[in-house]
Amino acid sequence: MMAKGTIRIGISGWTYPPWRGDFYPKGLLQKRELAYASALFPSVEINSTFYGLQTPASFARWADDTPQDFVFAVKGPRFLTHILRLRGIETPLANFMASGVLRLGSKLGPMLWQFPANFRFEPESFAAFLASLPQDGEAASALASRHDDHIKARGWLKADGVGRLRHAVEVRHQSFRDPAFIALLRRHDIALVCADAVDWPLWTDLTADFAYIRLHGSQELYASGYDDAALDHWAGLISAWAEGREAAGDQRIVPARADGSPRDVHVYFDNTMKPRAPRDALALMERLGLKPDEAAAAALVRR
Asked: Is 287 among the domain residues?
């Protein structure tokens, strides 16, 4: 049997009022929405960390609300990527690591670092940023210990259950179409996000031992859904990457290289303005033979 990486299909965030009474059934309490989503999907992205520091109590609650084998992807703060733009980020990065993210323990999956569309590739500053990212729980704990008074007594420095840390970067400026950028990511074993969107470049270079895909809606950003042909395309690409094969229609910055290594693949639907994201995610899971726990989800509604 061909070796294959783990495929996790999920959604970007889970708290959306238009989903209530649609994806989330009538009668489901809002406090159970994460539990419901995590019964159907093996992973979700935490978006709130992008907008501001959360608390250890929040991370602990999210971990408690999800199944044992569930994994969160965590978005890094826009304060580092959009406001500071990687300048003077040492302490803010430590604050983020101390904010409670390590309390997810074994459920802490990849960290996503999203950059704005006007952020250009500057090799020196980008290399310094990648080098500053902790690669395991021990390094993350050490970094977290350097937080400042913004965290104060509510900091969480323990890394119990946190092993190796994975990182992925999502870039949106054409200046990143540079072989030096791909070489830099490979040197640090950091994934380049394959992002499907209206106005941003879609690149499929594999730069780490896992792959990260974000599906934003290719006709209308954050809103348009994916038809059967599109879902078939993404299912084929995901299967190829999970099995260590080259995918048809690759759009790479550097020439393709097939190394035959199976990869874990994380996929998140970000077309969340309408309830298309969960529907599309479930349809993609079906194509890949992944089964949601519908019984566990239904039980939450009856409580």
From this structure: yes
What is the total count of domains within the chain? 1
Distance of CA 23 to the CA centre of its chain: 21
Query: 181-221: per-residue pLDDT in tens?
Result: 999 999 999 999 999 998 889 999 999 999 999 999 877 77
pLDDT tens per residue across span 156-174 = 999 999 999 999 999 999 9
Q: Give every CB contact of residue 140 below 8 A, 6+ residues apart in sequence.
A: 97, 102, 134, 159, 162, 165
For the beta carbon of residue 8, count every other beta carbon within 10 angstroms: 23
CATH number (domain holding residue 298)? 3.20.20.410
d(CA 78, CA 84): 8
Q: Containing domain of residue 274, as a range?
A: 7-302
Residue 114: left (phi > 0), alpha (psi -120 to 50), or beta? beta
CA 175/CA 173 separation, integer angstroms: 5
Best CA proximity match to 11, nearest among 232, 233, 227, 215: 215
Q: Tell if the pTM clears 0.90, that is, is over it.
A: yes
- Asked if 57 and 103 count as a contact pair (C-beta separation under 8 A), the reply is no
In a domain, 1, yes or no: no
